[in-house]
Amino acid sequence: MIDRIFHGGLRYRLILAAGALMVLGGLVAYAHQLTNGLGVTGLSRDVSWGLYIAQFTFLVGIAASAVMVVLPYYLHDYKAFGRMVILGEFLAVAAVLMCMLFVFVDMGQPARVLNLILHPRPNSVMFWDMLVLSGYLLINLVIGSVALDAERTEAAPPRWIRPLIILSIPWAVSIHTVTAFLYAGLEARPFWMTAILAPRFLASAFASGPALLILLALALRRYSRFDVGTKAIQALATIVTYAMAINLFFVGVELFTALYGGNPHHTEPFAYLFTGIEGRGALMPWVWTGQLVALAAAVLLLVPANRRRHRILAVLCALVVGALWIEKGLALVVAGFIPSPLGHVTEYAPTTPEVAVTIGVYGVGVLVLAMLYRLVLNIRERFEMA
């Protein structure tokens, strides 16, 4: 079965080829960055986190969303998620791998990664983030392999996996909570220093992750014989709807608190995002687009008829993923640095090497996810031929 992981139709080979080209371009750009340092990026003294950490933050949410199919299936015996579980687990594996790679490339020198391992500091939030991500990767690999074997044998998962599944639920919450604490614990950055950041991260994760999972399930349904079932897709669509509504509520709460209070330290980052400061507002078009798209998608998802029509649902899920990529990506990361504690406005824009490295990391995710899903399809095709 595994030996056929590189075998597939033309569409599958094109996906592998595209992923390989993305990785190759990323490696060339990373070699350039490794030789010349992080000076080739758009990062600076005032804006020390950018595109890499933005992708890391977004993908942690994608990884955490696997719990939204694991919990109903294993703990509440929701049979409709039987085939969706393995897709969610393997999506989490690919997402966590990309998270780790984005942290790796952001550190500049590979040797710096070893400092987290050789010199662990329990008071370092980054240390705990590395710990929970590594553990979550291992947990999802185990649960995913068990789910794959259950799919192969058409049998129920073994009983010994249940404690690990129960552990994965708070662990999934912890990876995004600890990531939120990376931001919220920085007292010099009032834009991030809010107790609602962790709940906001989780709400957005439970919207973007299942939305992406729906898109993948619909793609597999159309281009292969693997069908997770309409009931599972509709259940996930309901989860996306309410998670998106809660996320918008949290964003509104943040805006009200900052604007009504009128504290300049809290209002200035929001002013930069929505109106600009001192004539500078590079992110304004992105932020307004993201918020309007998020609002439109949430409203349209509230209509059951839109969720039942899969073509419309696919468009709305793509809008949810795109809107939250903007909100949790550059908007969240960059606005925390503007203005600086000294009141300076230093704008940030990703450079070509940064974009190329980012595409390369996503290429790794594409390859890993495609190969893991190929394993699932191999099993399904074997049953179809039997």
Provide structural commentary.
The structure is a single chain. With 386 residues, the protein is an all-alpha fold. It has a single domain, classed as Up-down Bundle (Formate dehydrogenase/DMSO reductase fold), CATH 1.20.1630.10. 74% of the residues lie in helices and 0% in strands. The protein is built from 14 helices and no strands. The protein has helices at residues 10-36, 51-64, 67-75, 84-106, 111-118, 125-153, 161-184, 197-223, 230-261, 264-274, 284-301, 304-308, 310-335, 352-385. Helix 1 runs antiparallel to helix 14 (352-385), helix 3 (67-75) runs antiparallel to helix 7 (161-184) and helix 8 (197-223) packs antiparallel against helix 13 (310-335). The radius of gyration is 21 Å and the shape is globular. The mean pLDDT is 87.
